[in-house]
Amino acid sequence: MKFNLLFFTALFVVLNAAVIPSNKIPSSKPECSTNASTAYLDIILIIDTSANMGSVNLRKISTTMSLIMPKFTIGNNWDLSQGYRNTRISVVTYDTNATIVANFTDINSIGDLNNILNTLTASNSQEANFAFSKAYLAKTGCTSLEHDCADPISIRPTAFVVFAAVANSPDLQQIPQLFSDLDFYETGALITVNFNTTDQTLTNFLQNITHNYFANASMYNFTASSNTLTKDLEWALLQANCYCADFFGTNAIYFDPTNNRYTRYAECMILGTWEGQGYPNDTIDMCSWSQYQKAIPAFVLSAEKTNFIQKVWMGIDPFTGMADYPYYIGLHKNQQGQWTWYDYNKGEFPLSSYTNWSPGYPNGAAGCAIMDSNDKSTLVWKNYGCNTEEAGVDALLCQVQACDPSSIACCLACNAQVGGYNKKKLMKSKGKNRYIRKMKMINGKPVRID
What we know:
Blueprint: E1 42-48, H1 54-68, E2 88-94, E3 98-102, H2 110-118, H3 132-140, E4 150-151, E5 158-164, H4 175-181, E6 188-194, H5 200-209, E7 211-212, E8 217-218, E9 221-223, H6 229-240, E10 250-256, E11 261-275, H7 283-287, E12 296-297, H8 303-312, E13 327-333, E14 339-342, E15 348-350, E16 368-372, E17 380-384, H9 388-391, E18 395-401, H10 412-416, E19 424-425, E20 438-442, E21 445-447
Parallel strand pairs: 1-2, 1-5, 5-6, 6-9, 11-20
Antiparallel strand pairs: 2-3, 4-19, 7-8, 10-11, 11-18, 12-18, 13-14, 13-16, 14-15, 16-17, 20-21
Helix pairs in contact: 1-2, 1-6
C-alpha cells in the first residue's frame, strides 16, 4: 500500500538554469555523519523497572548511557533554524504503571542524566506495561494516542530507546499496530535492548516492532549481553539523526556487509507526480519546488540502489490503480550528446560504470531517461523525450541529501525561516505507508494528500 503525501510550500521554479559540468562523481552509498557532538535529536529512554529487570541491570543501563552521552551536546536549545545543535533527553520508566521520570527540560547535562538514572530502582512487580503512551506524551505533549495535537518541534528526529526484560503487558498484541498507525517511525528510530533473550515472547516482540519493511529484517535491535552494546547504541542514535524531515522522503537503506547489518544512508528519495495546468519545463524543474531544499532528479549509480527503488516505487498506486512506473530519473544527454546525471548543485557528472538499459536502449534521439519495467518485477532504463508535457510521463523520482549531524539540507522548515519555525500539526499515517513517499504537484504546486 502506498499513499500520497501533501505539503504546502511556495514553488521555486528554476527557468533556463545554467548546467555546470562536474568532475566529481557522488558516492553511491553516502554515509550518515557520525559526529555525535553536532547531533540534534530527542532521545527518550524507556526503561523496564519491573522485578524482571533487577537492580544490576538498571546499573548497567546507567553505566552504558554514561559512556555514550558525554559525546553528545546535551541541552534544550531546540531551534535548528537558529543554528542550535543540542540533544534533548527524557526518561520514562514502566512496571505496573508507566511514569515520566524526567522531561526534556529536566536534563541539561550529563550530570543531570546520571543522577536520574542512578536513582532508578526495580519494583516488586513482575508486570511490565510498555510505556509507549507516556513516551509519546513526553515527545509531543499529546495526552492521547487517538488524537492529533500540536507539536512545537516535530521536525526534530526522535530516538525511542527501549530497555526491556519482559513482555507481559496486557495490550502486548496491540503495540505493533500502534507503531504502525502512529508516527514513531516518521522521523527518527526505534531502538531496543533485550535484557532477557531466554524469554521468547520478549525476543519475538522486539524483533517484530523493530522490523523494517524494506530491509525485511529487524533494525536497531540489540542484546544487553553484547560486548559491542555501547558502540552499537551510539551508532543507532546517530542513525536516528539521519532522516528526511519535511522533504517527506524515504531514506535509502542498504546492507552493510562489514558490520553485518542494514543501515540508513544519507540520501532521501520521493516520487513526485504532476496534475492539472502548468507543466514543468524539464526534469530539473519537476524537482525544484523549493529554493530551500536542493532536490534533484535522482541519480542511480548501483544495482543496490536500483533494488531499493524497486522495493519502494514499483507497486500499484491505490488511488489510481495504475503502476507507479514509468517515471523520469536524472539521466539525460548533455549539450555534447553524452549521457550524464545531475548532482546536488545541478551540475552534471558522467554516466558511471553502472548502467541498467533495457535491451535495445538507448535508441533514437530522445535525450532523457525513465525507469520502466518489461516484466512487472524489475526496473530498467529507457531513453525518452524530455518535453514532459508531450512525452506523457508526469512522474519523476527526486532525491535530496538527508539531514544528519552535519547537515539540515532536507529540512525546509529549518532553512526557510529566520527566527524560528512555526508549530506544525502532527500528521498520522497508516501501516507500511509510513515508508512510502510520494507527492503530487497540482497546477504547479506541491500538495500533500492523506
